[in-house]
Design brief:
heterotrimer, A alpha/beta, B alpha/beta, C alpha/beta, B: alpha/beta, Rossmann fold, 2 domains, 9-stranded mixed β-sheet, two-stranded antiparallel sheet, 7 helices, globular, C: alpha/beta, Fumarate Reductase Iron-sulfur Protein, Chain B, domain 2, 3 domains, 4-stranded parallel β-sheet, 18 helices, 9 strands
Chain lengths: 328, 262, 399
């Protein structure tokens, strides 16, 4: 199997995003089985330092620089990448399944008339055929998918399935590519990047986090979970639906569109374990999940699981910890 | 403004669904259906925009006869037109084909905006919106959390939700497509009585899938399911704690103390 | 289109009821919402009614005000005190008809219900219970009980069963209230009753009706009636007064072919006949909290008292506000699912009233009173000083 893999690099606020390092590390081990060359393309404006960092991680790095590319928009990336992809002819074009990946990959693959498979957990080649694994129904089922035969395929990979290893090689090839944008023809205008408000608590700094999911039921019942947080010295966090419903403020959201946390202990209460949330906490050192559904996908990422009624179990844990902490 | 909303009807899957004997599909019979959660937010946003700025909302859905329920829901919520593209089983077609078919029908109408949900509960692909925009050659923005219509400039300003609390702010020239993220608004509740009335008296324009195919030529799926299999915890290394709540607490506390957490 | 006529009819109903109000304000003296809130005019029966009446008259059913109106309408606990008071003082305005009519109107106009209640209605429609629990798990509590002892119930539909024990959603799914269901079952076993439990029981529909979702309520009525007819039963015993009230007063006439009793009525009868004899003592001072839906709405005051009176050792005391004067626990009218700002929490006030008369146990006969008062004992820091027990639990202890 010969061919090139082209990774589209993600960066924001002058930093390469973690997902790119994850993918580059992960692909290195995957492509040991295949005779493929790992390449990457980074688009931006005045990001020489990033180019330097990246160049050591791939066989060949393309760098497309233009003022218009300072911030990501689907349109500028699309028009910059199409000629490159046509010229390089990679077998696989890979991005993370992130706000950027799911924004760009469908359009880019459609423009290149290639199959696109989103949110993959892994992929493999069987001869010339590409197979991937992805989840369905929020993680309740897995599916093995075969892509329609084509000269190139687009995949987005789920964040968090690979761990960046930080290996560096020698400085490899770096090639600068020019753009030929028609600046007046753009239909999309980038107006600004809003930073998250730095108010309230920073849950990413907590050692112990107690996660509240929809299974807790309603805002009143969050108090039961809060008791556990108090007695363990942990902080409360929530899944997106919990934040949407206003049970906890936005800065407590853990997940793909919230914060990524890696505390010593994460106790997931009434959390089903959909990937949008688990992406945000699966790297915690110890994960304990409490849910009354034994098939909840959260048990796939947890180290310890408890199947039962939250409102029987949490109070019992809370009072036991209380008695242990203040022995009489 | 004329707004189209693409609706998907999904099964309400609370437990692990049954896999069919051929392992390529899921047995959804006996499960209740509802409007895909993200699409409910998209529908509400469309209704809010037209309520504020004037214009009409049209809803469109692809699938078997049952999807007319979500179309009637759309009409009952305030949409003026509903289009049903009939296919016997939507799950058998891939999203690339769906996006193509939708584009062929939608382009027959004048529109300023197309809204879709950011992703679907069943496959979580998040691909139809952006694909549809590419096919229609219009700009798009995904994971939208705020929409501001600029009628004089014939554009819209949107905020997109990125990771870690960051938001993008973009301006798109109309016509455009937006994929809508949850939490952008509070979808209105359509009562049983209201729905019943619209089911009796509402009109749905029914369109033939085959006609749309023959109009612009065949379109082929770009991926196929090889097999489905359960994603049970046995696949992972979780250690389950059992017993009474007191016993579980004891085990847990011992564990946490031994690991130096407590 | 029919829609306009339905909306017009609702508006007429509400305005009709509101017009009859004489603004005497007597209803405010017994309104639990008024007692526990800031005391604004719109936080009492007449005020709520006038709010929706003038909203209709002034066409204020659009715009930002509609969310304020919604909050006003949905804060009512539907306890019925105002209706009784208005009747007693003369005009007899059916205030709750106007308020619940207002909720139906808001739902029709897609303003209601309260956002937190939407999931409740969806859960009712999809799983037949308001708690977002799986329908398939509804009988888990019963299966659990069967592991401890043999039970003689029949799973309905089945032949030859006269009595249906209609469990209800809260006793089925709420861990605390399941103890009440278990107690009722133990008592039925004790008297050797031939009783059945539905294998696929669905919500009685009361939450839907209270929230103004008339269509969903109708659907649940029809499904339940069919279930009941299929079983060939003659009597329905309910655990919750809300189920009782809705069957007796709100279901289509077809339900009249069945005799409907709250479990307190059944057990009081059996005790009177000597068919059920409490054997052991409970040496406690006990007071009884009249549930609004059993007492005020249906006049069942004596049966639970007879039961408590038949238990030796019980020192029965009445709270200052009892019978038709009973203070609502705050859980009715759909309020279990919304957050209302309470200056003096109703359930906490009630716990204090119980302590005031020296009670060691507050006996209840309603799942929501059970939950509300139990919570209030904790939040007032009175754990250990007073207990909340259901009448069935107390009786079951003595046999």
């Amino acid at each position: 199997m010969r061919g090139k893999i082209l990774v589209i690099v993600e960066h924001r606020a002058k930093e390469i995003r973690e997902i790119t390092w994850e993918i580059l590390s992960g692909l290195k081990s995957l492509i040991d089985n295949y005779d493929m060359e790992l390449q990457a393309v980074v688009l931006g404006h005045r990001i020489d330092s990033l180019v330097g960092e990246l160049a050591e991680s791939v066989a060949k790095l393309y760098y497309i620089g233009d003022e218009e590319l300072e911030f990501y928009t689907w349109e500028r990336y699309l028009y910059a990448l199409i000629p490159l992809i046509e010229e390089v002819g990679p077998k696989l074009i890979i991005m993370g399944h992130t706000s950027t990946g799911m924004d760009l990959a469908p359009r880019l693959s459609a423009a290149m008339d290639s199959p696109y498979i989103p949110d993959c957990l892994n992929f493999r080649f069987d001869g010339e055929d590409l197979f991937v694994t992805r989840e369905l129904f929020g993680g309740k089922l897995n599916s093995e998918i075969k892509a329609a035969k084509n000269k190139s395929y687009f995949l987005t990979l789920r964040p968090g399935i690979f761990t960046p290893k930080g290996e560096k090689g020698q400085q490899k090839q770096v090639k600068g590519i020019a753009t030929a944008f028609d600046k007046k023809g753009f239909l999309t205008q980038f107006l600004g990047l809003l930073e998250p408000p730095r108010e309230g608590i920073d849950i990413t700094k907590a050692d112990i986090i107690i996660g509240v999911g929809r299974g807790v039921g309603d805002r009143e019942k969050v108090k039961v979970v809060e008791e556990l947080a108090k007695v363990t010295g942990g902080v409360l966090a929530g899944t997106r639906p919990v934040i949407d419903s206003g049970w906890l403020p936005k800065e407590r959201q853990v997940g793909q569109s919230g914060k990524i946390v890696k505390p010593k202990l994460y106790i997931a209460c009434g959390i089903s374990g959909a990937s949008q949330h688990t992406i945000g906490m699966k790297k915690s050192e110890i994960i304990i999940a409490v849910n009354n559904d034994p098939h909840a996908p959260i048990f796939k990422v947890a180290h310890y699981g408890i199947v039962g009624d939250l409102f029987e179990i949490l109070p019992a844990i809370t009072s036991k910890i209380r008695s242990v902490k203040s022995p009489r | 403004m004329e707004v189209f909303v693409c609706l998907r009807q999904t099964a309400v899957v609370k437990e692990e669904p049954k896999i069919q004997p051929d392992k390529k599909g899921v047995d959804l019979s006996g499960l209740k259906r509802h409007l895909n959660e993200w699409d409910a937010y998209a529908l509400e946003e469309a209704l809010l925009l037209t309520q504020r700025y004037g214009g009409d909302v049209s809803v469109i859905s692809l699938g078997p006869k049952e999807v007319e329920d979500v179309l009637f829901h759309g009409l009952a919520a305030g949409a003026k037109k509903a289009i049903h593209i009939f296919v016997p089983e939507r799950e058998q077609i891939d999203n690339w084909v769906i996006a193509n078919i939708l584009s062929r029908e939608i382009k027959k109408y004048p529109f300023d905006l197309i809204l879709t949900g950011a992703q679907a509960e069943d496959d979580g692909c998040a691909e139809i919106g952006a694909t549809l925009a590419q096919l229609l050659k219009i700009p798009h923005a995904s994971l939208v959390m705020k929409v501001i219509y600029e009628p004089d400039a014939k554009s819209i300003k949107v905020e997109r939700e990125l990771e870690e609390g960051y938001m993008d702010v973009l301006r798109l020239r109309l016509p455009a497509l937006l994929t809508i993220q949850t939490g952008i608004n509070q979808p209105r509740y359509v009562s049983s009585l209201r729905l019943r009335r619209f089911k009796k008296a509402g009109t749905i324009l029914r369109v033939s899938f085959d006609e749309l195919i023959s109009e612009a030529g065949d379109v082929y799926p770009k991926k196929e399911v090889v097999r489905l299999y359960p994603s049970r915890p046995e696949f992972s290394k979780v250690e389950m704690l059992g017993g009474s709540p007191e016993a579980i607490s004891d085990q847990l506390i011992e564990l946490l103390i031994s690991k130096g957490v407590l | 289109m029919n829609e306009e006529r339905y909306v017009d009819e609702l508006k007429e109903l509400i305005v009709d009821v509101a017009r009859r109000c004489r603004n005497c304000n007597y209803c405010y003296t017994v309104c639990p919402l008024f007692e526990s809130s800031r005391g604004f005019q719109v936080q009492g029966p007449s005020g709520i009614l006038q709010a929706i009446r003038y909203a209709i008259r002034w066409g204020e059913l659009e715009g930002k005000e509609k969310e304020v109106l919604r909050e006003i309408l949905y804060a009512c606990t539907t306890c019925y005190s105002c209706v009784l008071k208005c009747k007693a003082s003369g005009p007899g305005v059916p205030l709750l008809d106007g308020i619940e009519g207002g909720r139906r109107l808001l739902i029709e106009l897609m303003i209601g219900p309260m956002p937190e209640q939407i999931k409740v209605l969806e859960s009712l429609e999809q799983e037949g219970n308001p708690y977002d629990e799986l329908a398939s798990r509804r009988l888990d509590w019963l299966k659990e009980l069967e592991r401890e002892r043999r039970l003689s119930y029949k799973l309905l539909p089945a032949e030859g069963v006269e009595v249906l024990l209609y469990v209800g959603c809260t006793p089925s799914y709420n861990e605390g209230v399941q103890r009440v269901a278990c107690s009722v079952v133990r008592l039925l076993e004790e008297i050797g009753a031939s009783y059945g439990i539905l294998s696929e029981e669905k919500c009685c529909g009361s939450p839907a009706k209270r929230m103004g979702e008339e269509g969903l309520f109708e659907d649940l009525c029809n499904e339940n009636l069919e279930s009941f007819k299929e079983c060939g039963i003659q009597t329905i015993i309910t655990i919750s007064p809300h189920c009782y009230n809705t069957f007796v007063n709100e279901y289509p006439k077809a339900i009249n072919e069945f005799k409907i009793q709250h479990y307190t009525e059944l057990f009081a009868e059996l005790i009177e006949r000597g068919a059920l004899v409490p054997k052991s003592r409970i040496e406690k001072v006990v007071t009884y909290h009249d549930p609004c839906y059993l007492g005020k709405r249906n006049g069942v005051y004596d049966a639970p008292r007879k039961i408590l009176g038949s238990i030796a050792g019980v020192g029965f005391v009445e709270m200052r506000r009892n019978r038709d004067n009973s203070l609502c626990c705050g859980g009715g009218g759909g309020r279990m699912w919304i957050e209302t700002e309470e200056i003096n929490r109703l359930s906490e006030t009630r716990v204090r009233e119980a302590l005031d008369v020296g009670a060691q146990i507050v006996a209840v006969a309603c799942p929501w009173c059970y939950i509300q008062l139990k919570d209030a004992v904790k939040t007032t820091g009175n754990e250990g000083k007073i207990e909340v027990r259901d009448v069935a639990e107390l009786l079951a202890e003595t046999i």
